[in-house]
Design goal:
This protein is an all-alpha fold. The protein has helices spanning 2-12, 18-37, 43-50, 54-80, 83-91, 99-108, 112-128, 133-156, 161-183, 185-193, 204-232, 238-257, 262-269, 276-299, 302-310, 315-328, 331-347, 351-375, 380-403. The longest helix is centred in the middle third of the chain and has 29 residues, at 204-232.
């Protein structure tokens, strides 16, 4: 998935008016699309944890169809109505040069949300069944489809870069969702033949109590992307910063992404004795390996090779990206620990604490962004990286603090955490 983002940025950089279309994609289209789909991102971990019998499968299937459909309608309202002007021009304060291409990109991203909901739901079922290789295969299919569309757009040279990028992303997730649907047919048949497990069945009320705090987590997290875009748009050299932002984000995400799935690993193995010590050793290896590799890239000509030859940034933008990369070297080391501690809380059903942690992320990062806008002297790109580092550090502290408490944690709605196993 991280490689997909890099391929998109590298292709758009080689088409006409790269600064405008990179800024439209990275500063408006992608952050807003992610923000709208945020409530369904945690369907993956919910499906992994809860989809244990046929009744739970049917309940969750209906739940994600309803939620995904509602969010798709919201996306269409933003992309195809005057509401776009209110959000992008007034709230985000995006540069006028990217208004039109960003709206075209948002319209092309309409299938994105429902496709993400479907494929993450089925990915959770596959993970719970222990067939994790299928998840990787689905990602390869997505990457292949996206790369094919990008190659076609590059060969045409007549389609706006933001449209090539969004067509590639939409096509990739659609094909991946179809593939994951096919992979889960045998699993669904097994669920229907399996006897219902003793204990309380999964109900809509229990599902909502468990899931809504999780849904708020990426919603708050991804809100920071839109807040970041709005803040960067109000700082010096806004267009250059917005153009570099997706390129830098794509590179760092590759190394951050290697630790993301640790959350599902913790949820899957949390009922096994003595799982924590070997998993902690693994998290250390992932953290040090990811940040260490990014450090080597930043400290050698590999960074220039990447930003100028692969991402096709000009020398001025490449210099900005290289400086920001040094600031972001530590980010990949923090992500695996974030996933580890979140997984411990989710496995106990203490999902409200996860939401509280990400709310602290928003508070910490927004504070730095606000200072950057108020002071008005620092480049928006650098302030954005500093805000990300501040936010994730505060979030990680909160997760670490509460993941050591094994007692049931009160829910915001007045219940105790839900045991999953």
């Amino acid at each position: 998935m991280g490689l997909e983002l890099l391929l998109v940025a590298a292709t758009v950089s080689r088409l006409a008016h790269p600064e405008i279309h990179l800024a439209a994609y990275g500063g408006v289209v992608f952050p807003l699309s992610l923000f709208i789909e945020a409530p369904i991102i945690m369907i993956l971990v919910a499906s992994t944890a809860l989809c244990k019998d046929a009744a739970a499968y049917r309940l969750m299937r209906n739940f994600i169809v309803t939620l995904g459909g509602g969010l798709t309608l919201l996306h269409m309202l933003l992309a195809f109505s005057p509401f776009y002007d209110v959000v992008v021009k007034s709230l985000l304060g995006a540069p006028a040069s990217i208004w039109s291409p960003a709206q075209m990109g948002l319209q092309m991203m309409t299938p994105w949300t429902m496709s993400i909901a479907i494929r993450r739901f089925f990915q959770g079922m596959v993970i719970r069944a222990g067939r994790t290789r299928l998840v990787g295969l689905g990602t390869l299919i997505r990457l292949g489809v996206s790369a094919s569309v990008l190659l076609w757009g590059f060969a045409m040279q007549t389609i706006p870069g933001v449209l090539v990028a969004t067509m590639a992303l939409s096509a990739g997730v659609i094909f991946e969702a179809i593939f994951m649907f096919g992979c889960t047919r045998p699993i669904v048949r097994e669920l229907r033949q399996r006897a219902v497990e003793p204990g309380d069945p999964l109900t809509l009320q229990r599902l909502c109590l468990f899931y809504w705090p999780l849904a708020l987590t990426p919603l708050v997290m991804l809100a920071t992307l839109s807040v970041g875009s709005a803040a960067i748009s109000r700082m010096p050299r806004a267009l250059e910063s917005l153009a570099v932002w997706p390129v830098l984000g794509g590179l760092t995400f590759i190394f951050r992404s290697v630790g993301i799935a640790i959350q599902e690993v913790v949820v899957t193995f949390s009922d096994r004795p003595d799982y924590q010590r070997p998993l902690q050793r693994f998290v250390w290896l992932v953290a040090l390996g990811a940040s260490g590799t990014l450090f080597v890239i930043a400290a050698t000509p590999l960074s220039t090779l990447w930003f100028e030859s692969v991402a096709a940034l000009n020398s001025e933008l490449s210099s900005l990206a290289h400086t920001a990369l040094w600031m972001a070297v530590i980010l990949p080391a923090l992500s695996p620990w974030e996933s580890y501690f979140q997984g411990k809380l989710v496995s106990r059903g203490a999902t409200t604490l996860v939401t509280q942690a990400v709310s602290l992320y928003l508070l910490g990062s927004s504070s730095i962004l606000a200072l950057g806008v108020f002071y008005g002297k620092f480049l928006g790109l650098y302030v954005g990286v500093a805000a990300t580092l501040t936010g994730i550090s505060v979030q990680l502290w909160w997760l670490w603090k509460h993941s050591h408490n094994r007692q049931d944690v009160p829910n915001m709605m007045g219940t105790t955490s839900l045991p999953l196993r």
